[in-house]
User: Fold these one by one.
Assistant:
Number 1:
Amino acid sequence: EVQLVESGGGSVQAGGSLRLSCTATYTPISYSTYCVGWFRQVPGEERESVAAISSTRSATYAESVKGRFTISRDNAKKTVYLQMNFVKPEDTAMYYCAADRPTAYCYTAPLSPSDYNFWGQGTQVTVSS
Protein backbone atom coordinates (compact mmCIF):
# COMPACT_ATOMS: atom_id res chain seq x y z
CA GLU A 1 0.00 0.00 0.00
CA VAL A 2 0.96 3.61 -0.54
CA GLN A 3 1.39 5.67 2.62
CA LEU A 4 0.80 9.42 2.39
CA VAL A 5 1.38 12.24 4.87
CA GLU A 6 -0.04 15.74 4.42
CA SER A 7 1.43 18.87 6.01
CA GLY A 8 1.32 22.63 5.71
CA GLY A 9 -2.21 23.32 6.87
CA GLY A 10 -3.04 26.10 9.29
CA SER A 11 -4.92 29.34 9.71
CA VAL A 12 -4.67 32.17 7.21
CA GLN A 13 -6.58 35.33 6.46
CA ALA A 14 -8.62 35.69 3.31
CA GLY A 15 -6.44 36.76 0.42
CA GLY A 16 -3.40 35.05 1.86
CA SER A 17 -1.46 31.96 0.80
CA LEU A 18 -0.62 28.49 2.05
CA ARG A 19 1.37 25.62 0.58
CA LEU A 20 0.30 22.10 1.38
CA SER A 21 2.60 19.11 0.94
CA CYS A 22 1.76 15.46 0.40
CA THR A 23 4.71 13.13 0.88
CA ALA A 24 4.67 9.43 0.16
CA THR A 25 6.51 7.65 2.94
CA TYR A 26 6.16 4.34 1.13
CA THR A 27 5.32 3.31 -2.40
CA PRO A 28 5.74 -0.27 -3.62
CA ILE A 29 6.70 0.96 -7.10
CA SER A 30 8.01 4.18 -8.59
CA TYR A 31 6.19 7.20 -7.16
CA SER A 32 6.33 8.94 -10.53
CA THR A 33 3.85 6.45 -12.00
CA TYR A 34 1.07 7.42 -9.60
CA CYS A 35 -1.77 9.84 -10.14
CA VAL A 36 -2.01 12.16 -7.14
CA GLY A 37 -4.92 14.36 -6.18
CA TRP A 38 -5.94 16.86 -3.54
CA PHE A 39 -9.42 16.82 -2.09
CA ARG A 40 -11.20 18.65 0.71
CA GLN A 41 -14.08 18.02 3.03
CA VAL A 42 -16.18 20.05 5.42
CA PRO A 43 -17.95 18.16 8.22
CA GLY A 44 -21.35 16.99 7.08
CA GLU A 45 -20.56 17.44 3.41
CA GLU A 46 -19.21 15.19 0.69
CA ARG A 47 -15.54 15.12 -0.16
CA GLU A 48 -14.82 17.64 -2.91
CA SER A 49 -12.21 17.53 -5.65
CA VAL A 50 -9.57 20.25 -5.72
CA ALA A 51 -6.77 19.32 -8.12
CA ALA A 52 -4.91 16.35 -9.54
CA ILE A 53 -1.63 15.77 -11.32
CA SER A 54 -0.42 13.07 -13.70
CA SER A 55 2.94 11.42 -14.15
CA THR A 56 3.74 13.95 -16.87
CA ARG A 57 2.76 16.79 -14.50
CA SER A 58 -0.43 17.51 -16.41
CA ALA A 59 -2.79 19.16 -13.93
CA THR A 60 -6.56 19.37 -13.66
CA TYR A 61 -8.45 21.69 -11.32
CA ALA A 62 -11.91 22.11 -9.91
CA GLU A 63 -13.59 25.24 -11.21
CA SER A 64 -13.74 26.71 -7.73
CA VAL A 65 -9.94 26.88 -7.43
CA LYS A 66 -8.82 27.55 -11.01
CA GLY A 67 -6.49 30.52 -11.20
CA ARG A 68 -5.87 30.47 -7.44
CA PHE A 69 -4.41 27.06 -6.64
CA THR A 70 -1.48 25.30 -8.31
CA ILE A 71 -0.61 21.62 -7.99
CA SER A 72 2.93 20.43 -8.65
CA ARG A 73 5.07 17.39 -7.94
CA ASP A 74 8.68 16.60 -7.12
CA ASN A 75 9.15 12.90 -7.80
CA ALA A 76 12.64 12.82 -6.32
CA LYS A 77 11.12 13.93 -3.00
CA LYS A 78 7.99 11.82 -3.51
CA THR A 79 5.99 14.95 -2.78
CA VAL A 80 3.06 16.73 -4.38
CA TYR A 81 2.37 20.34 -3.45
CA LEU A 82 -0.76 22.45 -3.48
CA GLN A 83 0.02 26.15 -3.60
CA MET A 84 -3.05 28.02 -2.42
CA ASN A 85 -3.17 31.72 -3.27
CA PHE A 86 -5.93 34.29 -2.77
CA VAL A 87 -7.66 31.95 -0.37
CA LYS A 88 -11.27 32.52 0.57
CA PRO A 89 -13.27 31.58 3.69
CA GLU A 90 -15.05 28.95 1.61
CA ASP A 91 -11.70 27.19 1.16
CA THR A 92 -11.85 26.23 4.84
CA ALA A 93 -11.85 22.43 5.05
CA MET A 94 -9.80 19.37 5.87
CA TYR A 95 -7.52 18.78 2.91
CA TYR A 96 -6.59 15.26 1.90
CA CYS A 97 -4.19 13.94 -0.69
CA ALA A 98 -4.72 10.64 -2.45
CA ALA A 99 -2.80 8.49 -4.89
CA ASP A 100 -3.50 5.61 -7.21
CA ARG A 101 -2.10 3.88 -10.24
CA PRO A 102 -4.91 2.63 -12.49
CA THR A 103 -2.44 1.77 -15.27
CA ALA A 104 1.32 1.37 -15.51
CA TYR A 105 1.64 5.15 -15.94
CA CYS A 106 -0.66 8.02 -15.03
CA TYR A 107 -1.41 9.82 -18.27
CA THR A 108 -4.36 11.83 -17.01
CA ALA A 109 -5.07 12.21 -13.30
CA PRO A 110 -8.76 11.84 -12.48
CA LEU A 111 -10.52 14.37 -10.26
CA SER A 112 -13.07 12.05 -8.68
CA PRO A 113 -12.35 10.84 -5.13
CA SER A 114 -13.72 7.43 -6.08
CA ASP A 115 -10.78 6.92 -8.45
CA TYR A 116 -8.28 6.89 -5.58
CA ASN A 117 -7.62 4.08 -3.14
CA PHE A 118 -4.76 5.43 -1.03
CA TRP A 119 -5.38 8.39 1.24
CA GLY A 120 -3.54 10.47 3.80
CA GLN A 121 -4.92 11.55 7.17
CA GLY A 122 -5.57 15.15 6.16
CA THR A 123 -4.43 18.62 7.16
CA GLN A 124 -6.79 21.36 8.30
CA VAL A 125 -6.98 24.68 6.49
CA THR A 126 -8.92 27.52 8.09
CA VAL A 127 -9.43 30.82 6.26
CA SER A 128 -10.74 33.76 8.24
CA SER A 129 -12.45 36.77 6.73
Number 2:
Amino acid sequence: VQLVESGGGLVQPGGSLRLSCAASGFTFRIYPMTWVRQAPGKGLEWVASINHDGAIIAYGDSVKGRFTISRDNARLYLEMNTLKPDDTAVYYCGKERPPDSWGQGTQVTVSS
Protein backbone atom coordinates (compact mmCIF):
# COMPACT_ATOMS: atom_id res chain seq x y z
CA VAL A 1 0.00 0.00 0.00
CA GLN A 2 1.35 3.42 -0.95
CA LEU A 3 -0.46 6.67 -0.20
CA VAL A 4 1.10 10.01 -1.11
CA GLU A 5 -0.56 13.22 0.02
CA SER A 6 0.03 16.58 -1.64
CA GLY A 7 -1.48 20.05 -1.86
CA GLY A 8 -0.76 21.40 1.59
CA GLY A 9 0.73 24.80 2.27
CA LEU A 10 0.32 28.14 4.00
CA VAL A 11 -3.03 29.88 3.55
CA GLN A 12 -4.70 32.85 5.18
CA PRO A 13 -7.82 32.42 7.32
CA GLY A 14 -10.86 32.19 5.08
CA GLY A 15 -8.83 30.74 2.25
CA SER A 16 -9.04 27.41 0.45
CA LEU A 17 -6.82 24.47 -0.35
CA ARG A 18 -7.32 21.21 -2.19
CA LEU A 19 -5.48 18.17 -0.92
CA SER A 20 -4.84 15.14 -3.10
CA CYS A 21 -3.82 11.60 -2.23
CA ALA A 22 -2.35 9.28 -4.84
CA ALA A 23 -3.04 5.64 -4.06
CA SER A 24 -1.23 2.56 -5.36
CA GLY A 25 -0.39 -0.99 -4.36
CA PHE A 26 -3.97 -2.03 -3.64
CA THR A 27 -7.33 -2.12 -5.38
CA PHE A 28 -8.29 1.46 -4.61
CA ARG A 29 -11.79 1.29 -6.04
CA ILE A 30 -13.08 -1.27 -3.54
CA TYR A 31 -11.95 0.38 -0.30
CA PRO A 32 -13.40 3.14 1.83
CA MET A 33 -10.96 6.00 2.30
CA THR A 34 -10.45 8.47 5.09
CA TRP A 35 -8.79 11.79 5.85
CA VAL A 36 -7.43 12.36 9.35
CA ARG A 37 -5.34 15.19 10.74
CA GLN A 38 -3.00 15.87 13.61
CA ALA A 39 -2.61 19.35 15.00
CA PRO A 40 0.56 20.34 16.87
CA GLY A 41 0.61 18.69 20.29
CA LYS A 42 -2.69 16.90 19.74
CA GLY A 43 -3.85 13.42 18.79
CA LEU A 44 -5.26 12.22 15.51
CA GLU A 45 -8.64 13.68 14.55
CA TRP A 46 -10.96 12.07 12.03
CA VAL A 47 -11.86 14.54 9.28
CA ALA A 48 -13.93 12.71 6.66
CA SER A 49 -14.57 9.34 5.07
CA ILE A 50 -15.99 8.16 1.79
CA ASN A 51 -17.10 4.67 0.83
CA HIS A 52 -15.79 2.77 -2.17
CA ASP A 53 -18.14 4.29 -4.74
CA GLY A 54 -18.59 7.73 -3.21
CA ALA A 55 -22.22 7.12 -2.28
CA ILE A 56 -21.70 7.37 1.48
CA ILE A 57 -19.78 10.30 2.94
CA ALA A 58 -19.31 11.46 6.50
CA TYR A 59 -17.58 14.43 8.10
CA GLY A 60 -16.30 15.34 11.50
CA ASP A 61 -18.29 18.08 13.20
CA SER A 62 -15.40 20.54 13.09
CA VAL A 63 -15.22 20.50 9.27
CA LYS A 64 -18.83 19.81 8.26
CA GLY A 65 -20.06 22.35 5.73
CA ARG A 66 -16.54 23.58 4.92
CA PHE A 67 -14.69 20.50 3.65
CA THR A 68 -15.63 18.16 0.80
CA ILE A 69 -14.20 14.69 0.32
CA SER A 70 -14.25 13.06 -3.10
CA ARG A 71 -12.50 10.39 -5.13
CA ASP A 72 -11.87 9.25 -8.65
CA ASN A 73 -10.30 6.08 -10.05
CA ALA A 74 -6.95 6.44 -8.30
CA ARG A 75 -6.98 9.54 -6.10
CA LEU A 76 -8.65 10.81 -2.98
CA TYR A 77 -9.32 14.53 -2.56
CA LEU A 78 -10.17 16.95 0.20
CA GLU A 79 -11.47 20.37 -0.80
CA MET A 80 -11.08 22.71 2.16
CA ASN A 81 -12.86 26.06 2.24
CA THR A 82 -13.26 28.82 4.81
CA LEU A 83 -10.12 27.63 6.53
CA LYS A 84 -9.52 28.56 10.15
CA PRO A 85 -6.33 28.65 12.25
CA ASP A 86 -7.68 25.58 14.09
CA ASP A 87 -7.43 23.65 10.82
CA THR A 88 -3.64 23.87 11.03
CA ALA A 89 -2.41 20.28 11.09
CA VAL A 90 -0.68 17.54 9.18
CA TYR A 91 -3.31 15.87 7.01
CA TYR A 92 -3.11 12.16 6.22
CA CYS A 93 -5.12 10.03 3.85
CA GLY A 94 -5.87 6.53 4.99
CA LYS A 95 -7.10 3.30 3.49
CA GLU A 96 -10.24 2.01 5.19
CA ARG A 97 -12.28 3.47 8.02
CA PRO A 98 -10.68 3.55 10.48
CA PRO A 99 -7.48 3.67 8.49
CA ASP A 100 -5.18 0.66 8.47
CA SER A 101 -2.55 2.39 6.32
CA TRP A 102 -1.73 6.03 5.70
CA GLY A 103 0.75 8.23 3.93
CA GLN A 104 3.44 10.59 5.13
CA GLY A 105 1.05 13.51 5.40
CA THR A 106 0.93 17.05 4.07
CA GLN A 107 1.21 20.15 6.24
CA VAL A 108 -1.59 22.69 6.21
CA THR A 109 -0.95 25.96 8.00
CA VAL A 110 -3.69 28.56 8.34
CA SER A 111 -2.27 31.86 9.47
CA SER A 112 -2.29 35.53 8.63
